[in-house]
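Dear all,

This email documents one entry for the complex benchmark we are building for the journal club exercise. For each entry we list the sequence lines for every component of the assembly. Then comes the predicted three-dimensional structure of the complex as a token string, followed by one or two observations. Please use this as the template for your own entries, and keep the labels exactly as they appear.
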Amino acid sequence: MASAATDLIFRPTEGQDALSLAEGAYRRLRDAIVRGELAAGTKISERGLALTLGISAQPVREALRRLEADGMVLTQPRSGTIVAEFGPDRLAEMGRIRAALEGSAAALAAERADDAALALMDAQLAVMREATAAADTVRLAAANERFHALVHAAAGNAFLLRSLTSLRAYDHFNRVRALESTPKELPKALAEHEGLLKAFRKRDPELAEERMRAHVLRSLRAGGVLKNGKK
Amino acid sequence: MASAATDLIFRPTEGQDALSLAEGAYRRLRDAIVRGELAAGTKISERGLALTLGISAQPVREALRRLEADGMVLTQPRSGTIVAEFGPDRLAEMGRIRAALEGSAAALAAERADDAALALMDAQLAVMREATAAADTVRLAAANERFHALVHAAAGNAFLLRSLTSLRAYDHFNRVRALESTPKELPKALAEHEGLLKAFRKRDPELAEERMRAHVLRSLRAGGVLKNGKK
DNA sequence: GATTGCCAACTGCTATAGCAGTTGTCCATG
DNA sequence: CATGGACAACTGCTATAGCAGTTGGCAATC
């Protein structure tokens, strides 16, 4: 086995180069759907799409099956595949589900995150502090995403990681908007993240889960995805 | 469009006959894994498995990708696929995740379940009452499963339905055991289900979510999947 | 004109073949 | 004996071809 140093040196390019065709088609289609480039109800043909993407029909089919699992397309066997419609209510659904799963991830992270993982989260928190002070929403959003990704990784559950990655796509187009809409919310979000890290350090799964859940729900309300009336 | 009557007459066989080969392979493999017939670490080859099942490699591959999403197998690109190991701790994880998602489903069901769906749940509840009185654990488990399936359907969310179906496989082998272990728990579970239906009828998503979550967690503790110490 | 049957052009699904990495073994070499 | 390298036998991944249902329109019939 190679050493850690050589691992770092020969690490493959982390861009979208080394992706399998199926994975690439999945991401491309997913992004196109959440951006609204593919309207709801649009018929998708495995062959046609394969021709468009310049690849075979097999990877396209695999991508469509994943999108179906994500709830983004609907496939009628032997008949056809159409992109599902997700209006505001559907987005609210997915948001609430995400809040529940993020909570589960936080609970597991509280049990398992080692010092290295906690240090990485702390580093992202430092970035978020700076970005919050400078009102740099773009940088803040990036750090926020990395922070949550660290939590997902610390949870160490494949199913959870996969599910949360899928769910994250849903609020892709209103993520920045959520942070920009009410600048007063920025310090609040920062405080919530700090509270989360404290819960992790206390090894308190219940507390971490509840805090994460509340954090995501409040973030969704701030972005207008959820009604303010909901608890 | 055909009438409802002809729909009933010409409804295809609801057995496992009309399943696609990929779906069949998925279920077969999944069951084999949860039953322990395929030990953790066992290497799985797409070609080899296809030969064993008497089908092509493509459906097998599709099944393996789903199992990977479920966290049941681990695939190293261009190298190989092995069945993941899930000891008691992993089962506890999946159980807690399931509790969170069942809660989300219950919340959505409270908002959307129409009278017909509620009546169907009530019917299953009646069966559960009888089975509980007669201590018929097998019949009770079946009714219990149908009740939860009705909730999932009432939630009306494809992602949720798919995820919960996948998660349900994890506690397949200790489901009956959970109900048999402590007969005193049976009336408690029945009361919880009744409380759930009441929450649905009150259109109270928060209450339904919390009750469902508590119900699943308690059920897991009764089955020994979760430690008793956890709240 | 409304209706029924049929046929062609789809659709998703499966089988087969071959590509491109990975891995382990075996032999030549130090 | 230890070590390195090449080769063969894998692996997952992709491409192509063909099967089997579904669908929509067109023509023949009532």
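Observations: Residues 20-22, 55-59, 76-80 of chain B lie near DNA strand C (CB under 10 Å from a C1'). Chain B is about 70% helix and 5% strand.
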